[in-house]
Amino acid sequence: MEITRHTAAGDIQAERQLYSGHIFDIVQQTIHTPDGLTVTRDLVRHAPAVALLALTADEQVLVNREYRVGINAESFALPAGLIDPGESVEAAARRELQEETGFVAQTVTEMTAIRSSEGMTDEVVHLMLVTVDPAQRASKHFDQDEFVTSDFVPLAEVIAAVKDGRMASAQTVSAVSYYLAFVR
């Protein structure tokens, strides 16, 4: 088998909306698949996002602590956020970094893009490598329903937290792993 970027697409026969929300919608589709099956699937249509591995020159990582409804607790993760309609990935990374942390991106490079669960959602998260200077600050601009605490943590501690599960978000694990495997 040769691994290619995309293979044949399914033919969507019917679609009906089950839910519409601020960040995602849920639709039910009847699809004629490339292998000849006709299936009904629920799909979470999710806005694209960025997740930021923001590093200082001395390998300190900017880490956020924020309440997350999916685990009903605070979690530690990399800064992340949704890409606004019409906004470039780089612009979203710069905006999200400043809004959530108050730091200004010096450089922004896309490492890769990931999909959290292709069997149920079309969400794509662009993993960005960002350099920051702790001395360059700007004002934070939280969304009305968000409060984030940010601090710099040594990269070695972030790696240990990923390894032992204290930092378990898919974006964080993927960004740190990608950085270690292909960039560092």
From TrEMBL:
<dbReference type="InterPro" id="IPR020476">
    <property type="entry name" value="Nudix_hydrolase"/>
</dbReference>
<keyword id="KW-0378">Hydrolase</keyword>
<dbReference type="InterPro" id="IPR015797">
    <property type="entry name" value="NUDIX_hydrolase-like_dom_sf"/>
</dbReference>
<dbReference type="Pfam" id="PF00293">
    <property type="entry name" value="NUDIX"/>
</dbReference>
<dbReference type="InterPro" id="IPR020084">
    <property type="entry name" value="NUDIX_hydrolase_CS"/>
</dbReference>
<protein>
    <submittedName>
        <fullName>NUDIX family hydrolase</fullName>
    </submittedName>
</protein>
<dbReference type="GO" id="GO:0019693">
    <property type="term" value="P:ribose phosphate metabolic process"/>
</dbReference>
<feature type="domain" description="Nudix hydrolase">
    <location>
        <begin position="44"/>
        <end position="175"/>
    </location>
</feature>
<dbReference type="GO" id="GO:0016462">
    <property type="term" value="F:pyrophosphatase activity"/>
</dbReference>
<comment type="similarity">
    <text>Belongs to the Nudix hydrolase family.</text>
</comment>
<dbReference type="GO" id="GO:0006753">
    <property type="term" value="P:nucleoside phosphate metabolic process"/>
</dbReference>
<dbReference type="InterPro" id="IPR000086">
    <property type="entry name" value="NUDIX_hydrolase_dom"/>
</dbReference>
